[in-house]
Amino acid sequence: MAPTAVSNKLKATHRKQFQELQEAGEKGERERTMTLHRLFPLRLRQTIAQVRLLHGSGCGHQLEEVAMEPELRKETSVFRTQVNDPACQSERHLGQYYTLPTSHLHTIFPHGLPARYQQQVKTFNEGCVMVRQPALELISYLKAADYSKPAVRYLLYGLKGSGKTMSLCHTIHYCSTQGWLVLHIPDAHLWVKNCKELLPSSYHTSRFDQPIEASNWLRNFRTTNERFLSKIKLRQRYTWTKRESTEKGSPLGELVDMGVSRVKSSSDVVGAVLKELRLQAAETEESEGFRLAVAIDGVNSLWGRTTIKKEDKSPVAPEELTLIHNLRKMIDNNWCGGAVIATLSQTGSLYSPSSAYLPKELLGEEGFDSMDPFIPVPVSNYSEKEFESCYLYYLDRHWLQHPHSKTDEGKKEIIFLSNRNPSVLERLCAFL
Amino acid sequence: MEWTSSLIVPQDSIKSNWLIPAPPKVLSRQLCVSSALHRKNLAAAGPEKFSEEFIKKQVEEYNIGKRHLANIMGEDPETFTQQDIDRSIAYLFPSGLFDKRARPLMKVRPEFLPGQLKSVQWGADGRPFHFLFYTGKQSYYSLMHDTVAKVLAAEKQQVLLLSEGPVPQDTKPISLVGSRWLLKEELEELLVETISDHDYARFIQLMERLLSLPNCLSEKDFVQRYRKQLEIQSSKQQVAPLQYDENGVAYSTADGRRKTATCTVLLRDCGSGSISINGRDYLHYFPVLQDREQLMFPFHFLDMLGRFDGQCTVGGGGRSSQAGALRLAISRAMLSFLSEGQVESMRQAGLLTPDPRVKERKKPGQEGARRKFTWKKR
After folding, report:
1. Separation CA A360–CA A154 (nearest Å)
2. Could B303 and A409 be called an inter-chain contact, meaning their C-beta atoms sit closer than 8 Å?
């Protein structure tokens, strides 16, 4: 199995480093505890003195990060793991929470995380993601895939609230840490409904532009992929108006900035960006190529219906929207050097029954034919171990305040009322 | 205008055989009484009064007639019931009248059945039999009189015993568990006369006083006559026996109804705690927390949360009534797994009581069941 082989290798090479660091850490700790005893009164000492040696398995560079942390380290517990790099996580870490470093939170996920999760991050002052089986499976596929062949499409599907978006975010985190270029569309449903401004496209007469959504997305794209913006050069000359054009060979950053500032042509800029990335991802790593990850949440909106209406009150089909049209081109597997990871979502979708969650039902005939062949990855409710882990995490964060929720009977009640569904559990515990 | 005597006799006395003998004629002035007044005084006379003897004679005649009829019909006189009488009369006197009440019938007058009507309480000379007749409520006051006599007797005995010496009394008081005092309506039925609320309260007060005295054991029978035994409610509950399927897993089914929702539940003693409703998971069928709490109540009450596996079908009603119906059905299905004490506690918790509330009918002249149309002054 690829992931465990990789992690074993890393362990072997870094074991010596780890041992050295541990010894150094121990010595340092003894000195530190002496100073602690002198400076702080007894009660504070007790809290500070709950410092334990690191015993999580990990990669060398991971340990360096942690050793830099302040002295007040948290107790390592059953539900947490210190392995914060998705590449090093394996089945052993199933059900355990790993922390997203704050820097990554701001750069990789400016717009990607679900709203409730963002609130939780703000409340708990840390972003912890549970390592679950679907995400691990996806990461293993990504590790094992051959990138000289056409892009493989993965589809995460499951019941409402079972954790598809979070699994997608976990995978995106892995791709980012591996140095891929991530094209993350947080919710494709937002592009097919409630459009405030609809402009007829200048490029193609029958299509429509959505300047606001496009410029927002470009801004977030810029934040996510800063380092690629100067590296990638354009292969083609793009003319926007009679006076403005972007020359061949100029960096991608310039194009993106142009799209952010010139809101009117931002949808076309998005189209151009996608095309460039598609063409250039095919190159191998030696010649300054990169791997492209297209992550779309709510992919079933691309083939559904829209609530946007033209001026004569007739509905707009999704193909008539520039953004959707270009996105569909990205999903086609006629480009190499990357992967398409998509999630089905019934919550934001239009005109679909709430009991639908399977790909066939939500994608429709057209969507299924376009996505076919794809690798389906089912996401289910928490297993018993995962539920335990989540429950302990909430207890640890003092989120469960009600005294009865800490008892066994309270736990059984919570299990029954939420049926181990992640989002329902989160909403339930919010008022306990 | 008619010239009648001042003493008015009801007109119906002409119909019955022998009612009241005419009182000794008192010479009085002839009054001029018009027919209108005559009719009013008829109403003021009140219901008919019959003497004890008369009632007994009527009942005897009825019984004799019954035996004769049985002989006529060729049936056994001992086992000749009222139904047989009706049948025989309908056979012997066939009538084409449409109104059932106009057809010939042979029955004891309902007032003459024991405990329905007070027979005439005074003799031929007009003197009442009971010494408390002129109180108006003779049975009630005589009951009170007897009870007070007993109270006084008990107090006297207590004083005597105390004067003999402070001997510790080990008389146990009369046990009142499992019975209640007769209600006012029941007491009225027993005494065959109407009493007021105040009278009833005084009676209960007096009985309580009697019971508070230590030597009241001798009056046990007297007191029990005025108390009604309560039967244990849960003994009415029918608990179906447990069934076992092929794999040896115990299961039971039950139905439930609330408003217009009906449901059936099949509970299995598996140990998984998963419930499916109409083929879907209960989390998706009831997205609202309140409904899931209703489902949880029976399990949580008996601490059997993760034990059962449920398969339910539900239809009709709205989401809340479906949840209520399911709760009732689950409680009923669980009965076969429980002990007597648990069944009783479930009943007291209200899990086994079907909710009788249904939508109230809309009335004409009103906008809804209770809401009236907007009142306009003009």
Report:
1. 15
2. yes
ipTM for the whole predicted complex goes beyond 0.85: no
Domain count, chain B: 3
Does residue B122 sit within a domain?
Answer: no
Q: What residues in chain A have their Cβ under 8 A from chain B's Cβ atoms?
A: 159-160, 355, 409, 412-413, 415-419, 421, 424, 428
SS3 (DSSP) at A125 = coil
The CATH number linked to B325 is 3.30.230.10
Both B268 and B344 in one domain: the answer is yes
Structure tokens at A426: 């989160």
Per-residue pLDDT of chain A (432 residues; tens, 9 = 90+): 444 554 555 555 555 554 554 554 455 445 554 544 454 444 444 444 443 433 433 344 444 444 444 433 445 577 888 888 888 888 888 888 888 888 888 888 888 888 889 899 888 888 888 888 988 988 899 888 888 888 888 999 888 888 899 999 999 988 888 888 888 888 888 888 888 788 887 777 788 888 888 888 888 888 888 888 888 888 888 877 777 777 778 888 888 888 888 888 888 888 888 888 888 877 655 555 678 888 888 888 888 888 888 888 888 888 888 888 888 888 887 888 888 898 888 888 888 888 888 888 888 888 888 887 888 989 988 888 889 899 998 888 888 888 888 888 889 899 999 888 999 999 998 888
> Structure tokens of B18?
């022998």
B59 falls within a domain:
yes
The reply to whether residue A415 touches residue B284, judged by beta carbons under 8 angstroms, is no
Q: Which domain holds residue B266?
A: 243-349
E strand or H helix that includes residue A100: strand A97-100
The verdict on residue B271 lying in a domain is yes
Q: In this complex, do A424 and B293 lie within 8 Å of one another by their Cβ atoms? A: no
B-chain residues near A355 (CB < 8 A)? 280, 284
Strands B179-181 and B31-33: unpaired
pTM: 0.69
Is residue B192 assigned to a domain?
A: yes
Q: Any idea what the Cα angle at residue A313 is, between residues A308 and A318, rounded to 5°?
A: 35
